[in-house]
């Protein structure tokens, strides 16, 4: 296995506002784990997206303390004991962030991801899922259809880009030939890079269909991504 392993863990955490919180944790352990930190994704119906991101950040902080030693079990025990404090701190930090001016280091670290999908059998459901993920992770860009070509172009915080990739690869987003739900196995990461000054920032995430290659090319050119188009899109037509 060249990509490491990915697994999900669900835990119920008590004593938070007198209710149980169900945390859905996803860990991706790279092949050189534990010398390399795992990728972590956090979801919960009882928490906001921002709170889930704060829980993830705190888990990664703890993970750094356990580098080079198995850590997943320790991380789970830690979040069970500290979740309520993380949530309280999250509310405070959130209030402070609203007073900060724009142009911080987070704004400087915008990344871009270009993905190629082989097909979508359950197109309507698949599109809706991609739109939800982009919205939840505050990513902008395009889901683009041109003939049999399907591209996803995303811009946003690098950690959110990475979390999107984990969701894309580990969630049952489509159906197989028999109509059974399945994970996306036919996906290619064409490009993952930092947004440069010549690149235009997308303000929204949109789903667009193009009847001709020229129309798709114009979309890339308008965003200052001519080189990206010429390097990765024409080969897909062969």
TrEMBL record:
The gene is RWDD3. PROSITE patterns: RWD. One of its GO terms (biological process) is positive regulation of protein sumoylation. This is RWD domain-containing protein 3. Pfam families: RWD (PF05773). It comes from the Eukaryota. Its main location: cytoplasm. The keyword Nucleus applies. Keywords: Cytoplasm, Nucleus. It comes from Eudyptula minor (Little blue penguin). GO terms for cellular component: cytoplasm; nucleus. Residues 1-86 form the RWD domain. It is found in: Cytoplasm; Nucleus. InterPro entries: RWD_dom, RWDD3, UBQ-conjugating_enzyme/RWD.
